[in-house]
Amino acid sequence: MDFRSLGRILGILVTIFSVTMIPPALVSLYFKDGDGLAFTLAFFICLVIGLAFWLPNRKAKADLKAREGFLIVVLFWTVLGAVGAVPFLISQSVDMSAADAFFESFSGLTTTGATVLSGLDELPKALLFYRQQLQWFGGMGIIVLAVAILPLLGVGGMQLYRAETPGPVKDSKMTPRIADTAQYLWYIYLSLTVACGVAYYLAGMSWFDAICHSFSTIAIGGFSTHDASMGYFDSPAINLICVVFLLISGVNFALHHAFVVTRSLGMYWRDPELRGFLLIQATLVLTCFLVLLGDQVYSAVGTTLDQALFQAVSISTTAGFATTDFAAWPLFLPILLMFSSFIGGCAGSTGGGIKVIRVLLMNLQGMRELKRLVHPKAIYSIRLGRKPVSERVMDAVWGFFAAYALVFVVIMLALMSTGMEEITAFSATVATLNNLGPGLGEVALHYGEIPDASKWLLIIAMLFGRLEIFTLLVLLTPTFWRN
Amino acid sequence: MDFRSLGRILGILVTIFSVTMIPPALVSLYFKDGDGLAFTLAFFICLVIGLAFWLPNRKAKADLKAREGFLIVVLFWTVLGAVGAVPFLISQSVDMSAADAFFESFSGLTTTGATVLSGLDELPKALLFYRQQLQWFGGMGIIVLAVAILPLLGVGGMQLYRAETPGPVKDSKMTPRIADTAQYLWYIYLSLTVACGVAYYLAGMSWFDAICHSFSTIAIGGFSTHDASMGYFDSPAINLICVVFLLISGVNFALHHAFVVTRSLGMYWRDPELRGFLLIQATLVLTCFLVLLGDQVYSAVGTTLDQALFQAVSISTTAGFATTDFAAWPLFLPILLMFSSFIGGCAGSTGGGIKVIRVLLMNLQGMRELKRLVHPKAIYSIRLGRKPVSERVMDAVWGFFAAYALVFVVIMLALMSTGMEEITAFSATVATLNNLGPGLGEVALHYGEIPDASKWLLIIAMLFGRLEIFTLLVLLTPTFWRN
Ligand SMILES: [K+]
Ligand SMILES: [K+]
Fold first, then answer.
1. Number of Cβ within a 10 Å radius of residue A243
2. B111 marked as part of a ligand binding site
3. A440: left (phi over 0), alpha (psi -120 to 50) or beta
4. Do A105 and A132 form a contact (C-beta atoms < 8 A)?
5. DSSP string spanning B304-334?
6. CA distances from B454 to A135, B414, B429, B432, B433 (A)
7. What are the distances in angstroms from CA A372 to CA A62, B154, B384?
8. Residue (of A96, A86, A103) closest to A46 by Cα position
9. Are A395 and A158 in contact, with CB atoms under 8 Å apart?
10. Under a CB-based contact definition with an 8 Å cutoff, are residues B474 and B353 in contact?
């Protein structure tokens, strides 16, 4: 391991990150909410930490290998998550323990959107803005990670799959120009955010709320500036805007990238993952709609459709915005939607979960096994769209799935061993591992009341989910550290 | 499909099955419990049904293909499960709905051991004996199915795995002589039952209880003649006997078969699945022991060890016998043990669950994926013991795992949609799909109070579990029915 190079890269990251303390400080100045000093202080603290890593190692430039790549990715999220907790720790307007501050920061940066805070409406605007901004940068980080970096590291089988895919999204073409790709992705991400913010504003949000919620919408983050989340606005128009932009953000950004390059809309429709994604969303919305209608949960059909559409998309894309307390729906639906968050968004989107493409591939193999039983001698290849998928990709997908299930069970049992009640432990694990946000039971509204030990466990779950399990798991193997 | 041949085989099966009504009738005669007429009547009903299928088709002998094989296996369990419900329906001593009677019968025959009955201690001895006997025949059926028939059908990857395995358990050698193998297995099964029954008797059970519990122990069934299950006897010696025979019955009977043929004990120890099985058991017992000790659930260390050993083995092998109300343990432990029942016994044993060997194989592949991340160019093959495992086997194992998870989620959601509370729905699905028996929440003691619709769903779960998912699932595909 080349630790000096690692130190240099981390130093640069933290130094750049310190700059993100300035916008909240300006917000504080504008609203005179009293938190300006905290953010100015946080800026200097982060700057000093960053420079302390950077300057001594500034000349350490080495070619980094795959192993250093894993370390950098993990350190990127853990160090920024830790540094991001600074404002929560030093702000006078909230009283947060270390566990609380780290939880909120990691939850923001991983776009999980689980919060330990309540009484959001009374908090300083600067702090609210900062939380939303954490999600926004986190979302951008995810896309660059998923589209440009993880493929190079070979995590989760997607790199192999795409390397075999003909067309403009081919990684082998992207490889030599991560920076280029990242810049494109950044423009797309920014444009979507602006469009979303303008739409929210036109639909009636204040400009502050519009900006804040556009951040957490495009990042599929789910943080809000109100305790009632999107329910605060009580507006079907705003709900609909949110749904549309969640669906756009749930698509593979490599597809958006290819669209910007080629200007061909047809490629969206030809993408099997996107079609699967939309089919899943439609099925969930319809199921919720029919059950709510049958149980007469809402008096008007329009309200039923609005709520079914919004909640189904919000939970299954792993955004986790709420309107009504959806935990109060007939229990079948919340659990169904919690399970749907295991599927989550498309690979290369800001959504969490296992990702649609992996679920599609596993489904195809299941079908193949059934066919093989009837015709044992026949040869069936797995094809997505028209492209055959190699055994190597399937190996990686299955390994991912099994590791995901294992991490889920271990974290849930660990939570229960701290004495947490079942439905709370179950839903908290689902909500953090899938980077969803809100749970059920004691964590339906916020995570403020659970013990600190549970919060640390959930932080680990968020990281596992966001880093596609293996990026983190590989650091725990002896092979990784052996020369 | 050759439906006349199917009719003939089913007719023979039901006719033979009708004979199993005679031992309970004799038990009734001995104890004068008043249920003799019911079993005599049940005998004639089954006999008439059986002959009605057999006689018109008695000349229809055709070579059966794999597809007819699937149908026969599924019909075997469903038809015998249905016919087995007859005594429950006509007995005057219990008042059972159709759902209750089918539930009890399928639960017995699939060796699940979930019961809708309470007040067992007051029931006629004949009916109690009949329930235990159902499990015993079911257990025998499972072993023949798993060791001799499913491999021919290619379900779940084990046939392929064993076909590649050198040694005396090779399926290709067994294939031409199912009847021979079945006879050997029958002797082993009977001997173990006699040994277990004698041990129980010597440890203080009445001869009736000893026979009844030897039936449900070797079948890893879990039915008892007392509401308090094994707790009724309150005897560490009996608990220990139960544990020993559960562990023996949790081993692949093909290994026992090979031992009888070769008389070499070493082959047990060289079997990687058996080693994995024992390691899992030891870990679970130790975990339960330490947690119970730490929480001071029992005052004496001896009692703690006795209870930890008994409950851990009983639940994780999917027997489901209880002593104390283990649902009252610190919640972490019951949930841990419920999850361990997903692993279950070894393939080819009377235990349920996914089976140790599949879990081992998935674990090996997970490890390989981690190593591949660090050294992407290296070639790693999956080896169990010293034998490489082919991609084809891994495909089947992963397909099995995914289908298992899917069936689990669908049945659990379906239960919740009938209004069942979460922990009850979760544990009931675990307990039936893994052929375990007792659940938590409302089904911790028995399944009598849940709605009929839920009972039918759970019957389907038992069948899915016992028939290794794919045997049943394949019948739902169009490919199967196409010519
Ligand atoms: K989220
Ligand atoms: K059982």
1. 23
2. yes
3. beta
4. no
5. HHHHHHHHHHHHHTT----SS-GGGS-THHH
6. 43, 8, 10, 12, 13
7. 50, 9, 24
8. A86
9. no
10. no
- Read off the tokens for B222: 């879990």
Cβ neighbours for A414, distance < 8 A, ≥ 6 positions apart:
A457
Task: Give residue B346 CA to ligand 2 midpoint distance, Å.
Answer: 14
Record the tokens describing residue B359, joined without a space: 């879990």
3-state secondary structure at position B387 = strand
Give the H/E segment covering residue A387: strand A387-388
DSSP 3-state helix, strand, coil percentages of chain B (rounded to 5)? 70, 0, 30
Do A365 and B399 count as a contact with CB atoms less than 8 A apart?
yes
The model's pLDDT over B15-60, given as tens digits with 9 standing for 90+, comes to 988 999 999 989 888 888 878 888 998 899 999 999 988 888 887 7
By three-state DSSP, how is residue B91 classified?
coil
Q: Which ligand is nearest to the CA of A115?
A: 1
CA of A217 to the centre of ligand 1 (A): 9
Long-range contacts of B419-426 (CB under 8 A, 24+ apart): B419/A330, B419/A331, B419/B451, B420/B450, B420/B451, B420/B454, B421/A331, B422/A331, B422/A335, B422/A422, B422/A423, B422/A426, B423/A422, B423/A423, B424/B450, B426/A422, B426/A426
* Cα atoms in the 13 Å half-sphere on the side-chain side of A361: 28
Q: Are A361 and A396 in contact (CB under 8 A)?
A: no
B157 falls in which pLDDT band (50, 70, 90)? low
Beta bridge partners of A387: A384
Give B288-324 pLDDT, tens digit per residue.
999 999 888 888 899 999 999 999 999 999 999 977 7
Closest alpha carbon to A81 in A107, A57, A53, A59: A107
Ligand lying closest to the C-alpha of residue B229: 2
CA-wise closest residue to B112 among B470, B469, B465, B482: B465
Q: Which residue of B has its CA nearest to A287?
A: B417
* Dist. CA B393–CA B389, nearest whole Å: 7
Put simply, the answer to whether A402 touches B366 (Cβ < 8 Å) is yes
Residue with tokens 């307390």: A325
Tell me, yes or no, if B373 comes closer than 8 A to chain A by beta carbon. Answer: yes
Q: Which two three-digit tokens encode residue A114?
A: 């689980």
Q: Could you give phi then psi for residue A388, rounded to 5 degrees?
A: -70, 145
Cβ of B422 within 8 Å of Cβ of A335? The answer is yes
Tell me if A114 sits within 8 A of A448, measured CB to CB: no
Q: Which residues contact B344 (CB under 8 A, 6 or more apart)?
A: B316, B317, B318, B351, B352, B353, B354, B355, B356, B434, B435
SS3 content of chain A, % helix, strand, coil (to 5): 70, 0, 30
Helix (H, G, I), strand (E, B) or coil at A278: helix
Can you tell me whether residue B269 is helix, strand or coil?
A: helix
- Tens-place pLDDT, residues A43-98: 999 999 999 988 888 877 766 677 777 888 888 899 999 999 999 998 888 889 99
| Ordered alpha helix ranges (H), A19-149 | 22-31, 36-54, 66-83, 86-90, 98-109, 125-144
pLDDT digits (tens, 9 = 90+) for A131-157: 999 999 999 988 877 776 666 666 655
Amino acid identity, position A129: F
Which residue did the predictor score with more confidence, A372 or B451?
B451
How is residue B346 annotated by DSSP? -
- Yes or no: say if B87 and B96 are a contact pair by the CB < 8 Å rule: no
How distant, in Å, are the alpha carbons of B150, B274, B408 from that of B347?
11, 10, 20
Contact A366 B154 (CB under 8 A): no
Phi-psi map region of A419: left, alpha, beta (phi>0 left; psi -120 to 50 alpha): left
Reduced to 3 states (helix: H, G, I; strand: E, B; else coil), residue A384 is strand
Rounded-to-integer distance, Cα A175 and Cα B470, Å: 42
